[in-house]
Specification:
By secondary structure, the chain is an alpha+beta fold. The protein contains eleven helices and twelve strands.
Length: about 350
């Protein structure tokens, strides 16, 4: 077992930056943390989580897919793909680390998305345990342990430093190349640090959300529930919840004429938008109620139906903090779980 004192964190990041680009959470305006490229003098944020998730590194908000150039009658196809440079993301919490397994099921299933796969192959996830989970966190409801996050390397915070454990071959090779920066330690301290986090997590008010009535096979039970009308009536369709969510994977594909070539790119889309799923024959979801229902049915029913029971939510709490009208997946879960409201 390796141990990294907090006082030696900058040295670790400096040594790691010599091997690959490394991104860390940094405080911005209004103490909103965001990932930034580490450079000497960068101060790592102590925020529990970033405003947007680490998903951005593997599934960016905008991405060029292909280009087309025409010279007289000749058409040239331009492939913008390049081998991704090795990089690492430090400070990924347990919720975001679990989100990658959800995204992998979407983008790495046959046929694999080569753009995403390239970044996953070159990216290293350095996760950090949550010493004090927030009251808006509910990852434990989805079976996620905030004291033992997934990732290539796990850093377990004990308040004075980190117990460091490799979880993959990539992670093991990375730690071996930096062995001079760590101390040796036994596992007793790691177990105590995890136990302390678990004691806090066990008392979180949202840690025991009712999930029994959700999951695969529940479409018929939930689709026509009358509560969708009242739940969705204040939704303004801004899409904020989808843009901060670490597991949303919808995107649109568009063409842009630069004057020299036509670039085909993809960008994040949201099922909350009125033109989402719009086709030549029309839009199958004309009302905000239908679009609202789609978002939460996908997270809680459709995704687990097709993925062995795994929910499409990791309980990060971002939608609770970001929604301008205070509507979120927790309210949906609690409302639809009430027996008295069933139709």
């Amino acid at each position: 077992m390796k141990y990294l004192p907090t006082a030696r964190l900058d040295r670790f990041l400096e040594d790691a930056a010599k091997l690959r680009k490394i991104y860390v959470p940094v405080d911005g305006e209004q103490n909103r943390a965001a990932y930034r490229l580490w450079m000497p003098g960068t101060v790592v944020s102590k925020a529990l989580n970033t405003t947007r998730s680490a998903k951005d590194f593997f599934f960016p908000q905008t991405e060029n897919l292909v280009g087309f150039r025409r010279t007289e009658k000749k058409l040239e196809i331009v492939d913008p793909r390049r081998e991704t440079e090795d990089f690492a993301v430090f400070g990924v919490r347990a919720c975001d680390a679990r989100s990658f397994s959800i995204l992998d099921k979407v983008f790495l299933s046959d046929p694999a998305d080569t753009y995403y796969a390239n970044r996953r192959a070159h990216g290293l996830v350095l996760s950090v345990s949550c010493r004090r989970p927030a009251e808006t966190c509910f990852c434990t409801a989805f079976g996620i342990d905030p004291s033992a996050p997934e990732g290539d390397v796990t850093f377990t915070d004990d308040g004075e430093g980190y117990y460091v454990r490799a979880n993959s071959e990539k992670g093991e090779a990375f730690l071996e190349s930096l062995s001079g920066v760590f101390d040796e330690a036994d596992e007793a301290g790691e177990k105590e640090a995890r136990a302390q986090t678990k004691r806090i997590a066990d008392r979180l008010p949202l840690g025991t959300l009712p999930l029994e009535k959700f999951g695969g096979g529940k479409t018929k039970d939930l689709f026509d529930r009358p509560e969708w009308s009242s739940l969705s009536e204040s939704c303004i369709g801004c899409g904020t919840c989808t843009f901060v969510c670490p597991t949303c994977q919808c995107y649109d594909i568009r063409d842009f004429d630069t004057g020299r070539e036509v670039r085909r790119f993809r960008c994040w889309d949201s099922c909350m938008y009125s033109d989402f799923t719009k086709m030549a024959g029309g839009n199958p979801r004309l009302t905000q109620k239908e679009r609202f229902r789609q978002r939460f049915m996908h997270k809680l029913v459709y995704f687990p139906e097709n993925n062995g029971g795994e929910f499409g939510c990791v309980g990060c709490g971002r939608c609770l903090r970001a929604c301008p009208i205070g509507m979120n997946i927790v309210k949906v879960l609690k409302t639809l779980a009430e027996d008295g409201n069933e139709s």
